Amino acid sequence: xxxxxxxxxxxxxxLADLLARNGHxxxxxxxxxxxxxSVNAHHVNPRFLPGAVLDPAVRxxxxxxxxxxxxxxxxxxxxxxxxxxxxxxxxxxxxxxAMLVVATKGIERETLAVMTQVxxxxxxxxxxxxxxxxSFAAEVAARQPTAVVAASSDARAAERAQRALSGExxxxxxxxxxxxxxxxxxxxxxxxxxxxxxxxxxxxYNSRAALITRGLAEITRLGVALGASPxxxxxxxxxxxxxxxxxxxxxxxxxLGMEIARGATLDAVLAARDTVAEGVVTxxxxxALAAREGIEMPIVEAVYRILVDHHSxxxxxxxxxxxxxxxxxx
Length: 330
Fold this sequence. Notes:
The structure is a single chain. The chain is of the alpha/beta class and 330 residues long. It has two domains: 2-176, 3-Layer(aba) Sandwich (Rossmann fold), CATH 3.40.50.720; 181-321, N-(1-d-carboxylethyl)-l-norvaline Dehydrogenase, domain 2, CATH 1.10.1040.10. Helices cover 52% and strands 12% of the residues. The protein contains 15 helices and eight strands. The chain has an eight-stranded mixed sheet, sandwiched between helices. Helix 4 packs parallel to helix 5 (115-122), helix 8 crosses helix 13 (278-293) and helix 9 (205-225) packs antiparallel against helix 10.
């Protein structure tokens, strides 16, 4: 297939490399011209995926329309807060019969829309697939075994994405709960910030296990209220991604939480990074969704208070432990 990968961060670059290794013709769109130049001249992206040597078949461009030329599969991997503007900017260049896959994990702050809905708004009439699951870009680029989920209300589109992306070391399962898969992939980033804060405070494995488990309960509670299946959150895009992001040293959201708990300000942490920690935007979105739906999400509330109202992480942990006693199951 002719594939366009829109977004040359770590994950977009790793997926472009994966598609090229699977035998597809791949054009990678980079917002940063220096990234496109590095990929074309040296088959590397030292800015966002240092240490990885890319398949020579990956070509890159900073021209969005050129990246889309005759593409049969368009894979969006931009930060969530710019996905709508990038999709709108390139809308005229997307072939009418192209399949759209979105690997961005987030919830739009202004509209509270998941990423597949953003693409449907801007590029109507095309099949859309959400790609999610436990997948650090560096490990995918290093050909380490990884399993993810391709979810869509269009079963044929999910299967087509599955075939395009699956290969040695990268296994893709299909799923029909598109909303649940997207919510799991987005909301786990908020829980990763929380577990990073606990680690930054010097708390141990008991605290981490409690936050992961109760975080999963919150994600499931909101997901079910929005129409997702509770079973989805026990799978790769739910529990699998949650465990990875809350425990893995490569997690940007976990490391952000650690830095804040150790005294850094959010602005300072973000200013020092080229990469995006999606959990910051998703904390705002999750907080707003919980309020809109009347769903209790105390961990999300605690992270929101720390990031927005500058509450003390240690005081927030204490407040969680002092909450009214209740049964574990809702």
